[in-house]
Known about the structure:
Elements: H1 4-7, H2 9-30, H3 40-67, H4 73-98, H5 106-139, H6 155-161
Helix pairs in contact: 2-3, 2-5, 3-4, 4-5
Amino acid sequence: MPIHPVIVHIPVALAVLMPLIAGALLLATWRKWLPPRAWALALGLQAVLALGGLAAMNTGEREEDRVEKVVSEAALEAHEDAGKRFMVGAFGVLALAAIPLFVRRDTLKIATMSLATAGTLAVVALGYDVGHQGGKLVYVEGATKAYTQGAVPNAQARHDDD
């Protein structure tokens, strides 16, 4: 049983939730309903998202040899490239989200929280792309054949290796 499809749901789910969570924390901090240190929740969840993405990439790389026997190389590379872009975005937002916890001026805290919140929207788009490419592997390319008995390599995948 492949673990990659299980692991990927952690960063994907958090990518969808982070704009809502970061936006709520930004508003609550700006309106002084919560102290600025509450932003640590956004930072922590963004760290889980980024580390979950690393775990997803690791499991995907471990399962790549088996799956590439039944899917086209182009489709697999498109998914892998989308995953790398997602990770750059996730870690970029993580770095940006850390800044508000280390600055003193409230205006700078709010400004960097706002930028990080905007960044979470970009991560959603990147997550959509990596998920879309992964869906193509499963539903168009038939990646699940790599894990079923009697898996027969896909003709297109054999052709890509030539």
